[in-house]
Amino acid sequence: MVAQIIDGRAHARSLITAVKADIALLQAEKTNIGLATITVGTDYGSVAYENRLRALAHKLGIPYEGYRLDESTSEADLINLVRKLNAEPDVSGILALRPLPAHIDEASIFKHLDPRKDIESVHPENAGLLALGVPRFVPSTAAAAFYLLDSWIDSTGANRADFYHGANIVVIGRSNNVGKPAVSLGFARGAAVASIDEWADRTTGVGRHTRRADVLIVAAGKAGLVKAEHVTENTVVIDVGINPMTDLDGRVRMVGDVDFEPVAARARAITPVPGGVGPITDVWLMSNTVSAARLLAVPSHTNPEFTEPLSEAS
């Protein structure tokens, strides 16, 4: 069996058309929209992602500002930048790219984001809403994984509800930005969901869990973690991993968490890396920026101002 390739780039093109229409409407209404990203250090994946977002924002006509800070930037200075962007009326979406340096506490940074501008739902309020099944924003990578999965189900002619109610979904990786949101999105669709992380690889082995999966979402950050023997011919594999690999000639290329060719020869369907989840993630983030702009435009009596955490504001 050779897996059906789920083409993220093709799906992204239709999403881009819809987002462009939304942006044009905002601009006609004179509603402020803008995206600001913050990168601390020179992590290859973060810099590559920031470059993609910059290019896509320009293509869509979304005002964009990318802040690239030195690795030695203090937590206090980063919080001050977040506060500055919270107060900026022309910014509707703020994204602090991971990973942050070890000396900066992610949770401390995220709790200072204005929840209405937190387009990746990392602020505690937004993370809680997502866990309760009533998200303000759906985190872009987890949303992209399920967008592709939903689209693939539709292409088979199956009923989505029937598919999910009978599906076992296994999520590898428990990050706050992908793994945990993916579990919530699986629950919201009525599926049985299991979550494993790196300890399964180190102890019992991932195959013990993944061979029972109808859908496997892999977001572990470990190149080639999932191999052919870890899947069955009925498995739909959504590869979220983005790992830089340097070839013998010095060129850097991105590979996923899945050993693509052997797994594709066995699975039912699979997303490639690059060209799978990534293109949808980028467009979804822009769509969340549009949604944030609309939210911020709501009159203040129904959309209260964000207040700083008490421990920091006092």
UniProtKB/TrEMBL annotation:
Entry's EC annotation: 1.5.1.5, 3.5.4.9
Gene3D superfamilies cross-referenced by the UniProt entry: Leucine Dehydrogenase, chain A, domain 1, NAD(P)-binding Rossmann-like Domain
Every Tetrahydrofolate dehydrogenase/cyclohydrolase catalytic domain range: 6-120
Keywords (A to Z) from UniProt: Amino-acid biosynthesis, Histidine biosynthesis, Hydrolase, Methionine biosynthesis, Multifunctional enzyme, NADP, One-carbon metabolism, Oxidoreductase, Purine biosynthesis
Keyword Heme in record: no
Domain (Tetrahydrofolate dehydrogenase/cyclohydrolase NAD(P)-binding): residue spans on this chain: 164-294
Presence of the UniProt keyword Signal in the record: no
Cross-referenced InterPro entries: Aminoacid_DH-like_N_sf, NAD(P)-bd_dom_sf, THF_DH/CycHdrlase, THF_DH/CycHdrlase_cat_dom, THF_DH/CycHdrlase_NAD-bd_dom
Pathway: One-carbon metabolism; tetrahydrofolate interconversion
SUPFAM superfamilies listed in its UniProt record: Aminoacid dehydrogenase-like, N-terminal domain, NAD(P)-binding Rossmann-fold domains
Chain coiled-coil ranges: none
Binding residues annotated for NADP(+), in chain numbering: G173, R174, S175, I242
Superkingdom of origin: Bacteria
Pfam families: THF_DHG_CYH, THF_DHG_CYH_C
Catalytic activity annotation: (6R)-5,10-methylene-5,6,7,8-tetrahydrofolate + NADP(+) = (6R)-5,10-methenyltetrahydrofolate + NADPH; (6R)-5,10-methenyltetrahydrofolate + H2O = (6R)-10-formyltetrahydrofolate + H(+)
Role noted for this protein: Catalyzes the oxidation of 5,10-methylenetetrahydrofolate to 5,10-methenyltetrahydrofolate and then the hydrolysis of 5,10-methenyltetrahydrofolate to 10-formyltetrahydrofolate.
PANTHER family given in the database record: C-1-TETRAHYDROFOLATE SYNTHASE, CYTOPLASMIC, C-1-TETRAHYDROFOLATE SYNTHASE, CYTOPLASMIC-RELATED
Family in the record: Belongs to the tetrahydrofolate dehydrogenase/cyclohydrolase family.
Alphabetized HAMAP family for the sequence: THF_DHG_CYH
Subunit structure: Homodimer.
Name of this chain's protein: Bifunctional protein FolD
Source species: Nocardia aobensis
Lineage of producing organism: Bacteria, Bacillati, Actinomycetota, Actinomycetes, Mycobacteriales
Name of the gene: folD
